Amino acid sequence: MGCTLNDHENYIQAFSHFMRSGDASRLSEFLTNGQSAEFLSIYRNGFYKACLSALSANYTCLTYALDDADFKQIATAYINLYPPSQATLVAYGMASSMSNTKENNIPSFPVFLQQLEGQGPELALPWQVLSDLALLDQAWISTLNKQNTDLVSLAQVQSMLEQGEDLSLIPFLLIESVSLVNTEFAIFSQWQGLRFQGEGIDRLQQAGQNILFWQYEGEVQAKLLTSAEAHFYQTFLVTGSIGDALESAAQQDASLDISALFADLLNASLLKLEV
Amino acid sequence: MQNSHLLAKKKMDFSGAGINLKPQHYDEAIALALPDTADKSLWFEVHTENYFVAGGPRLAYLQKIRELYPLSLHGVGASLGNSSLLTEPHLKQVAELVERFDPFLVSEHATWSSSQNAYFADLLPLPRTQSALTSLCDGIEKYQTAIGRPILIENPTNYLDFVADMDEADFLMEAVKRTGSGLLLDVNNLYLSSKNTGMDVNAYLDGLEGDLIGEIHIAGFAIDENFPERLLIDSHGAPVADGVWQLLERVLSRFGPKPVLLERDDNIPTFNELMLERNQAQSYLDSMTPLSKLAANSAPNGVHLE
Fold this sequence. Notes:
The complex is a heterodimer.
Chain A: H1 8-21, H2 41-58, H3 60-65, H4 68-81, H5 109-115, H6 127-144, H7 154-162, E1 172-174, E2 179-183, H8 188-196, E3 209-216, E4 219-224, H9 227-239, H10 242-252, H11 258-267, E5 271-273
Antiparallel strand pairs in A: 1-5, 2-3, 3-4
Chain B: H1 4-11, E1 17-20, H2 26-31, E2 43-47, H3 57-68, E3 71-74, H4 88-101, E4 105-109, E5 112-115, E6 118-124, H5 130-147, E7 152-154, H6 168-179, E8 182-186, H7 187-197, H8 201-206, E9 213-219, E10 222-223, E11 232-233, H9 242-255, E12 260-263, H10 271-286, H11 290-298
Parallel strand pairs in B: 1-2, 1-12, 2-3, 3-4, 4-7, 7-8, 8-9, 9-12
Antiparallel strand pairs in B: 5-6, 10-11
Helix pairs in contact in B: 5-6, 9-11
């Protein structure tokens, strides 16, 4: 038996210090028989391996677009600065959901990539393109793991109309799985090719795009939006008011066909009823 | 929690061999449950935190699996040994999964992984001291209270020896008895601890009470690149080694049939390959005659049956 440890908290703090810094000196008093602390590296290695694996799973296209060594270097920098703060890695690196990164003022992995512009290693792709790819990956996985409730069907709306209801008074909302992404580069089709066909990125055009993601019958759907549509969805997401959203869209494009937009919403099962 | 052992014992009656299920094997696992091929002893375990999602195919698949097979939820992130970060949202999500999927077993680890708002994403060792035991029991109690049922706690893999007031078997048995939980005996972890730190397997098994063991894990390990002569890593990335199979046989002979779970989390092979390995564990369980089961169940502690 070694010395008695009376204060569990001291041990936890010493071990935490090692996990954060790699400095094992404070742990030596807790090891028996003068054991070498070199085996402790197993725990740090396990931590980095798990976090790298999570970032790799959540930002798949980055692993396709970057050399393994570059991805590992960038991801490790993120892990060092922003280790997971919640006891699950399912959403590690993401700006919303359970990782609470917004609340903790921790940048998401895509935002971190933006911040590396001019500071990180020189890479074949611009940092903003990497950030765009990461945003699209993040939206895809976040949408996939959402649960839609209280969907409104076309038949329901037809029934409402037949009963003479004023649709402008119905409290419609966008379904939970909706996610809107704004990119700096026109990268959406290349992201699709990279993610689903294993294609490379061969041309870059710095022209922003707006992409809508949503889940339909367990599968992720995505489409490019026009500027007016983007204003519509952005306003709808922020205000929860379909009236405000339509007004915002109409200001962008006076010729916007509101009936067609509403039909698109219904056909794509993008609406729910506010409960 | 005095009565929780009764509930735990009731839940532990089933003793087939299972596999920890990975998403790439969902479809094959479901297909295997066709009426003419169904194996009533097969079951699956998943890592609880991987299902901390609101919806989507992952939960839908798990629902389908649960309709076809017994299911166990195995937590890896609760940090029971330092449960200050064991938050209400975390426990709420575990409780919701338990409520929804009604697993026949729920388990966690006798380790820690969170401190000062950081999650270290690994199963970190606890010193076997009174204060660590108190902290572990607090964590187990919190967890059990949140989900409304007893859990099993898993013995760790030891790579080094930390200060200790007691042996690991005593430490775990004390935690189990204080909290009304049960033990998940990871035979691979025990094997690796014996190789890495010289832990005495016979003495360890002598210290366990068989009726408090609710599940057994087996897995493969790796030889550490830097210390190949001295260190074996709990990688879950290789087939189960002969020494671990032999230890499994000893444990089953000694303590009687228990649910046995084959873990594989890295270098994941085909579903068929995993099933072949799992079937070997099932054959050990099947080979236990009623007499040997009776002998195992009635063997007093401290008697070696091997």
